[in-house]
Every structure is written in C-alpha cells, then in structure tokens.
Amino acid sequence: MTSPASILGSQSPKLKSLPPLSLYVHIPWCLKKCPYCDFNSHAIRGEGSQAPEEEYVAALIRDLEFALQDVWGRRLSSVFFGGGTPSLFSAKAIDTILTAVRTLLPLEHFAEVTLEANPGTFETQKFADFRAAGINRLSIGIQSFNAQHLKAL
Q1: Residue 76 — φ and ψ, nearest 5°?
Q2: Which helix (H) or strand (E) holds 101?
Q3: Segment (H or E) for 69
Q4: What are residue 70's phi and psi, to 5 degrees?
Q5: 73 — alpha (psi -120 to 50), left (phi > 0) or beta?
Q6: Is residue 43 within 8 Å of residue 33, measured between CB atoms?
Q7: Which of 10, 76, 123, 139 is least buried, going by the fewest C-beta atoms within 10 A?
Q8: 140: nearest Cα among 153, 151, 130
Q9: CB under 8 Å to 71, separation ≥6 — which residues?
Q10: Mean pLDDT in runs of 10 for the chain (153 residues)?
Q11: Which domains are present in the chain?
Q12: Residue 76 host element (H or E)
C-alpha cells in the first residue's frame, strides 16, 4: 500500500495557520414535528410547555468545553443556531451560549452569527433581543406563502 508520505515525498504540506472553524449549535425543539423533517427535532408537548432551556444551555457549554482540546488555537468564522426551532429559546439563553463561545474560542470580528427562525415564533422585541445577544443574520424557514400548499405539506 502506498503511504501518504511516499506520495507527497518527505515534505508534507504545512499550514501557516490553522483554518477557521464554523460552529453549529443544535436546538432540537419545535412547536410541532413537521412530517417532512428528517432532523433530530422534538415537539414541545402540552399547552404552555417549554423546552428545558437552562439545562440544555448548560449541557451545550459543557460539550464545548470538552471539545476545546480538539480545536484549541482555532478561531471561529461563523456560528449557526439550527434545529428544530432555535427562535423558541429566549434571547438570554442565546446570549449565554454566545458568551461562552466568545470566552472559550476567538470569534472573528465580522463573524456571521445566524439563528434559524420560523414565522410565528418571534416578534419585534425578541428580534431586537437576539440582535443585542449577537445574532446578525436570520435564516427564516418558509415552506410556502400559499395557504393551500402549506395545508398539503
């Protein structure tokens, strides 16, 4: 079997610096589970029920701390909150996550910080609060603007 060293010769390529990373943060809760969705997501059950926000945020931060040894010295060029429906979480929870990210890893100055949001899960003040927390881009999930198509979906 041919080894990589024999193909490249004695000189393996050297990076001047480690390339930046992108961080994906999965928030797996939704108001309801859509039948076409293949992602790990779960409906919030019962009227007035909420996702276990505090516990989940703490677990995400522990997971990031655990992974630091594998990414130490790398900077982040983007952070993407996906799901599920991350806009169901409070701006305070998103701010707590982003504060931990910024504390543990260097976030590039003009990094794109995206939050997936579904129509009906946010309002003007919540948008302002997400912006204040550091969100600078929204990814809005819209399957159709046609009521009949939505019903069929």
Answers
A1: -100, 135
A2: helix 91-104
A3: helix 53-71
A4: -90, -15
A5: left
A6: yes
A7: 10
A8: 130
A9: 21, 105
A10: 56 78 95 79 75 94 96 93 92 97 94 89 86 94 76 72
A11: 20-152 (3.30.750)
A12: strand 76-83
